[in-house]
Amino acid sequence: MRRLRTPCWARCSVEKPNEAKPAVARQQSAPTLVFRRLADEDDELSEVQPDAVPPEVREWLASTFTRQLATSKRKSDEKPKFRSVAHAIRAGIFVDRIYRRVTSTALMQFPQDVVRVLKTLDEWSFDVFALHEAASGAPVKYLGYELLNRYGMIHKFKVQSTILESFLSRIEEGYCKYHNPYHNNLHAADVAQTVHYMLCQTGLMNWLSDLEIFATLVAAIVHDFEHTGTTNNFHVMSGSETALLYNDRAVLENHHISSAFRLMRDEECNILQNLSRDEFREFRTLVIDMVLATDMSFHFQQLKNMRSLLSLAEPTVDKSKAMSLVLHSCDISHPAKRWDLHHRWTMSLLDEFFLQGDKERELGLPFSPLCDRNNTLVAESQIGFIEFIVEPSMTVCADMLECILGPLHSNTKNSSSTNVGTGQESISEESSGGEGSNKFKIRKPWVACLSDNKKIWKEQAAKDAEARAKLEEESNEVQPVTTEE
């Protein structure tokens, strides 16, 4: 009986029995789900000096990006599993193959305006707002389908087109449930596209198995499913049903995961129905790990742990932790995009904060940081967000990617007598010394965007400070002068 082969555009894992393996380890997901602790020690806002930012901004950073949470660790002893060197050499060929115009052959019909916008899907500052308009308000439906098709996930895991379309449509509806200005289907599409950039343009996809890529894309798509437009702290302080259900721990993140997997139990939306039992358990564990790691209160400890790991002589990076950091970095990446996109995201997020502040006023709760529409320092908050949150995240994430992908790049380079193009525009080499050796680097388009955006916010902050000082001076001048009798 002739064995069916996977098409050329769907990758397969090939490993020679005696082939040497790089030092980067692949961790197998645990068979039993446990709620992991991302941090080994108490969270600290050590990166932020007391006088570096205004008190309100510091309070926001502290309350949003730190938290102490006791959970258990998960261990695994599985050895790394890599594709063959020949496959790594052909990485560029694979990239070219998966970026065929699959939308023209997909069963789901794509409007021409959507196809036009998706031609720029590989760009760092992809305009998801343009996609939203072209897709008539359904960016997740088309972008999610496009990504899963491009990476060969639909074929590999036998996902029926009608079921995938139904799943994505229902996910989109969940994102629109509360009519949030920021945490909506636009944000989901933006994060999924940014994750795609990290997978493809850095070459990270060559380090991952098909199932891991599948889990990463789905985690990005569902990571804020049915977001309420309010923070975890609001749920806890208001004693919401969701906070009661999840015992005040990662309230929203637990809800996003639980609701998404509950949706996938519906036969009409079950994109996982053809996974084996082991594949399902690994997929589910990976998605849970990644989405839980988007809880902002884990931020500083997550970066601290990865920095510590990368400082070792021979770091071994866990797949789940690596992809969790990638998703978290992409989740907060809008300040690292082009100014017009970043500014639009900022205004939407502030609208959402202010709506929460209005609810807090109605409930008699104290205002959460940046939620009082009458007393919020917009420019200062964004400067603090960029300097203390986004820049460090993107730096650590890039360092991790270079650590992970360096061995693959070295094997590719050493095994080819000719200069084989990778087809990945974000990969480069930089001289590491006088001996002529080269150090693997990825290109970082976010660096220039962060610098430009921070400069603009600083100019705005100076103007705002000047305006406030002028108002205060005018207020002092009109105050009546009183004399003692």
Automatic annotation (TrEMBL):
Compositionally biased tracts (Low complexity): 421-431
Known EC number: 3.1.4.-
Any one GO molecular function term: metal ion binding
Domain called PDEase: residue spans: 103-464
InterPro entries associated with the record: HD/PDEase_dom, PDE1_N, PDEase, PDEase_catalytic_dom, PDEase_catalytic_dom_sf, PDEase_CS
Cofactor-binding details, from the entry: Binds 2 divalent metal cations per subunit. Site 1 may preferentially bind zinc ions, while site 2 has a preference for magnesium and/or manganese ions.
Signal peptide annotation: none
Compositionally biased spans, kind Basic and acidic residues: 461-473
UniProt cross-references to Gene3D superfamilies, sorted A to Z: 3'5'-cyclic nucleotide phosphodiesterase, catalytic domain (1.10.1300.10)
Domain of life: Eukaryota
Pfam families on file: PDEase_I, PDEase_I_N
Binding residues annotated for AMP, in chain numbering: 183-187, 224, 331, 382
Enzyme's top EC category: hydrolase
Residue sites binding Zn(2+) 1 per the record: 187, 223-224, 331
Annotated CDD domains: HDc
Region described as Disordered: 412-439, 461-485
Keywords of this entry: cGMP, Hydrolase, Metal-binding
GO biological process, one term: signal transduction
Coiled-coil parts of chain: none
Entry annotated with the keyword Hydrolase: yes
List of residues binding Zn(2+) 2: 224
PANTHER family, alphabetized: CYCLIC NUCLEOTIDE PHOSPHODIESTERASE
Family to which this protein belongs: Belongs to the cyclic nucleotide phosphodiesterase family.
Protein name: Phosphodiesterase
Organism name: Parnassius mnemosyne (clouded apollo)
